[in-house]
Every structure is written in structure tokens, then in C-alpha cells.
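FAQ
Q: What does a multi-component entry look like?
A: The components come first, one per line:
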Amino acid sequence: MPVTVKTFTSTSDAAAALSSDRSARYLGGGTLVMRALNEGDISISTVVRASDQAMTRIDATGSRTILGAGVTFARILAERDLAFLHAPARSIGGPAVRNMGTVGGNLFAPVPYGDFTVAMLALDAMVSVQGGLGGREIPIDEFLQSRDRQTGALVLAISFAKPGSADAFRYRKVARIKPKGGAVITLATHLPMNGSRIVGARIALGSMAPTPIRARAAERALEGRSLDTSTINAAAAAAVEGTLPGDNALASAWYRREIVGVHLRRLLSGQE
Amino acid sequence: MAKTALQFRHNGRDVAMFVDGGTNLLVALRELIGDMTPKFGCGQGGCGTCSVLIDGELHLSCLTLAETVAGRSVETLDGMKDGPDLHPLQRAFADNFAAQCGYCTPGMLMAAKALLDRNPQPSRAEVVEAISGNICRCTGYEPIINAVLSAASGGRARA
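Then the predicted structure of the entire assembly, as C-alpha cells:
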């Protein structure tokens, strides 16, 4: 069914168009919205686009990195300053999907997709959103909890503090097909250290609930401790707590619950 | 619903058409200008047989809103050969038995071209990565990888 395509030069005009029409969806790279249109999704009658260059800006010069919502995974892979994000960016799709898919769109990607968002959740990112009544910054976990209600708002950018060291941020995607394919589960950890103690542990899981979630019990097991075998075992044992995985063609909910602790242990231990 | 005028370069030639809102580039190429080389596979971005180059970058035409290529350059398999002469990649695919049913071949060739255009001497791992978004159910991939390696700089690709 034909839809109306509205292209705006300003993000505020695009946000106004999105918020005033429940059947409007923002088109970024197309990997979600065009797929829905190809499948005959009649809930979409208007497609909104914004050509504002701010949407594709990368600012990695300061202590906080800002990625415009329209930044593609291929561009992240081309940025040396974003080397810590190369693993999550490379784990998504093949080259064509990485040339098209965007960090903003990934926030809305359903299970078994949305791997980059798992990395963003571990980095405690803030999501910059423009609604009909103005802009605001939302913590990413809050954004994800209300994701279904966010389709009327325009995501402008995502920002986060760089990890203190290369080893502080770790990422692992478990997939049937490598290097592409939907995730069985996805894990990302950010473990800032104060001396030998972990302070502010963040563990994010993908495909363990309808949206990426924090493994808070596992985070508590790490907090204030050094990353030794007993701490890692305690975190691995707690990884499944609070999760709500589903069944799909890639894995059953049971299997996901069984392996999440195993892969968290491997990730924290630095195993391949 | 009103149609939208669209102009872009298709294999080096200017083309113009009217498209319905929401039309994807694959439909525009196949149904409006008759270029049947990009194939419809999954319509979800999973198979890669609709792959084309947009301004030299590999994209999935089934997931590309046609209007977004206005004023840009779109290359498809149809533009690869030079008159009766096959492109070296096409010749290598034939020589290495890299096409069986052939349905994935247009996407494989475009993905391979995108790789060789920026990296004329890829390693085997780089070839595997370059075609990782393209599914082939016949060949087992090895003949395709060998074909791309043999086409790369006359077969001087790195191991």
C-alpha cells in the first residue's frame, strides 16, 4: 500500500510531523521500516525523514562521545577513536546492512537484533529525543522500558562516556551464523576500576528479554570487588536473575537461560 | 495517492520515473526501468540477492526507499559487463563454477565488486567477510570465494 513520504530539512519539523501522526514512522537506514513496508504493515501510512546533517554527526573528541542517530555502523567501523565499538558494530549484518543500519534505528530493533543497543546500555548512554513539545535527554534503560511509546518521538543522538581503558568494555555476541545472523544472546560489560576494585559495574544483555536489559544481580556481585575467579563465578551464577527470554527459531528461552552465565563467565575471564 | 518524480543515474545513464510513496529501489529498478538483474529474495535484508551499489557503496535495494537515491548513482549487475565482454569477476565466476542456480549471483557479484573496488588484493578472510550478507544455498560458498580471489588483481590475492 502506498505511503506518504515527508522529508524535512530540520529535525524539529520532522519531530512535529512524527508526534502529530500515530501512523508515522521515522525512516533512518531503512532496515526496519522498509522491511515492515515490504511485509505489508498497514499501521504505517506516513514515512518521515530528516536531512539535517546533525543526525549523522560523530563527535568523539571530548570525554563524552556523541553519535547522531543517523550514523551507520560502517561509519563507526571507519572511526579509529571508536575502536572500542568496532566489535558490536562488526557483529551486525553483512556489509550492506552496516552501510545502511543506524545507531538510532538499532534502539528500536526487536529480538534477535539490537546488538549495538546492548553495548550502549552497558555504557550507560543517554538518548537525546525531540518530541512535539521539545527536546529531552533520557537514560537509555528508561528509554528502552518505554520503547513502544517512543515511536512518536525523534531520536536525535546517543551519547556516552568513553570507557576508561580498552579492557574496561567487553562485548560478546553468540550467533548461529558468523559473522552475521540474529543473536542467540548478546552481552556487553563495562567495568570501571578504582585500583583493583570494580566501581560502577554495568552488564547488559540482549535477547534475554523483549528489550536489552541490565543484569543487575550480576552487577551487584561484581561491585566493589576485584575481578577474580570467585567474583566471576558469583556474577555468572546471578546472570539469569531478572531475565525474561523468549523462544524463537535461533534458541529456546530455556537454552538462553542455560548459557547466559556461561558466556558471562567467558567474557569476564577474557576467554574467546 | 500522488506519485513522486524521481531521477538518478543508473549504470551511468540518467533515468527518470514516477514512484508511489514507499516504493523500494528494487521495485523501481525491476518494474519501472526493466533492470531485472537485482533479484527479489527475502524482502527483509537477510539474503543479499538484491544488492546494488549506491554511490559505490553496497546497499540492499529491497530496503532502500526509492526516493532516497534521487540524484545519486546506482550500479547493478546489468552495468557490469562492457558490451559483449564480461567483467573479470563475471569471467572468474564462470571459470570457478561459482554459480549453480544463479539466484544469488547478482548480489554476490555486487558484493564482490564493492570489495575489489576499494581493496583490489583482499585476503581470503576479507572475501568471506565481504560476502557474509549474501546467502547461497547451492555452492557451499567455496567456489564463490575462489572466484573472487582469482579475479582480484589477476589472482594475486593474499592467502
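Q: Is there any commentary attached?
A: Sometimes. For this entry: Residues 253-269 of chain A form the longest helix (17 residues).
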